[in-house]
Write a structure and sequence with these properties.
It is a single chain. By secondary structure, the protein is mostly beta strands. The protein folds into two domains: 77 residues, SH3 type barrels; 67 residues, SH3 type barrels (Roll), CATH 2.30.30. Strand 11 and strand 12 form a beta hairpin.
């Protein structure tokens, strides 16, 4: 009976939080939370505070052309760390850190969100502390654009860290390395 309950809970969570997660790059300013994907009605706001080290993270639950539906939670250990709010935020505030794979310090940028698609092996030697906006997201794949001078590289990757501190474990985020 406990085994069946665990499967049901796991399946429900995976369906609900199917897209991915992000952090908000905005610091010391209010982040508007809208009640729908196309509404101008701000029903709540959160504010990250770098002085008090009060930061938020978000699970991306749904997406539209300009906004993500998110579940916002405190990323800072506190007594209210289990509290959350759900609503829509502008896509431009949802960011990820690019995260290289050891020992190469490279990331893979795929043409489509699939391990079977063509990819580029991109060195991060010329990039440091790269926080990028999420342009699109599909089942844990993040669509990003890297710009270095006049050259830009766009594509899908799983080489990301989604916490505000960028303190994720190094490793290979792909089950099958290309």
């Amino acid at each position: 009976m406990k085994f069946i309950f665990l499967i049901v809970v796991t399946c429900c969570f995976n369906v609900y939080a199917q897209h991915g997660s992000c952090f908000f790059l905005s610091t010391n300013s209010h982040i508007n939370i809208f009640d729908s994907e196309d509404s101008k009605n701000v029903f709540a706001m959160v504010k990250q505070d770098s002085l008090k080290e009060n930061y938020y993270s978000a699970e991306i639950l749904d997406l539209s052309l300009k906004r993500y539906k998110v579940r916002i939670m405190s990323a800072t250990p506190s007594t209210n760390s289990n509290a959350f709010i759900e609503g829509w935020v502008d896509k431009s505030i949802c960011h990820i850190w690019l995260w290289e794979m050891l020992p190469t310090d490279n990331i893979y940028i795929f043409e489509t969100p699939s391990l079977d698609s063509d990819y580029q092996d991109v060195s991060l030697d010329n990039y440091h502390n790269i926080a990028l906006p999420i342009l699109d997201i599909k089942n844990g794949w993040y669509y990003i654009t890297l710009i270095n001078g006049e050259k830009s590289i766009s594509g899908w990757t799983k080489n990301v860290c989604t916490n505000v501190w960028g303190s994720c474990e190094h490793g290979n985020p792909y089950s099958n390395t290309p």
